[in-house]
Amino acid sequence: MPWRAVLLSSTALIFVIAPCLAAGAQTADSAGGRIDRKVPLAVATTAGDSSYVPLSLSQKADLYARGTYSARAVLGASYAAGLAQWRHTPQEWGSGVSGYGRRDAAAYGGGIVRRTAEFGFGALLHEDPRSERSARSGFFPRTEDVLLNTVTVRTDDNGRRLAWSRAAASLVTGFAVNSWEPRRMHSTHHALMLSLAGFLSYGSAAFTQEFTPDVRRYVYRELHVGSAQSNDTRR
Asked: Fewest CB within 10 A of the end CB: N or C in the chain?
């Protein structure tokens, strides 16, 4: 399928289906930087939760700084650089310590560009940067909420709209990253593909955030049960 068709179909999926899913009233948890959904999407059609408290610009800046210059961001860039080093991509950057250093700097630099652009556009458009998790049960309803929380955001007036800051940040980052890649990779096509991949990464991050606690609980429960069974056998 031509890349233009892929881009257009993905855009249609995001900006046509997403409004049909958009809804939901939520309460804010400023300390944890997270909003937990209290009303199912199928029930809530307006944002009328009076307990919602928007963040100030300084609080948004604090979240931006913690997310951009955190150990998690540094380790994430190092992991991405390691994968690129293993795949020897791009080839022009070579191997060894110098090659890894360039890939690590490129990955971390791309993260800074994306988060900075998202913060700037989000603050200008009065979007709430806090992450959201579903309060519904079941894999498919929660996955639906993951999709919703990827393509839409809460606004400071407790509304909900398309995540323009994420779309803009993905586009800016795609072209920025493409500009410092080897010359043979410089093209509008490649920059747009990087932009699309960047936006889709918001969805994968939301999915991971939503279901990682369940995986951890399952692993802990299995380890606990296994340990208990082992102790009973010894007795």
From this structure: C
Determine the Cα–Cα distance for residues 28 and 205; give it in Å rounded to an integer. 20
Place of tokens 């855009």: 11
pLDDT digits (tens, 9 = 90+) for 54-75: 999 999 999 999 999 999 899 9
Q: What ranges make up the beta strands (E) of 93-218?
A: 131-133, 152-154, 160-162
Burial of residue 18 (CB within 10 Å: 0-12, 13-18, 19+) is middle
| Tokens matching residue 64 | 């931006």
Q: pTM here? A: 0.72
State whether the Cα torsion 124-165-55-67 is positive or negative: negative
| Longest Cα–Cα distance in the chain | 68
Q: Judging by beta carbons within 10 Å of its beta carbon (0-12, 13-18, 19+), is residue 143 exposed, middle or buried?
A: middle
C-alpha distances in angstroms, 19 versus 12, 73, 173? Answer: 11, 31, 25
* Residue 111 CA: distances (Å) to CA of 79, 121, 139, 198, 209: 13, 15, 30, 10, 18
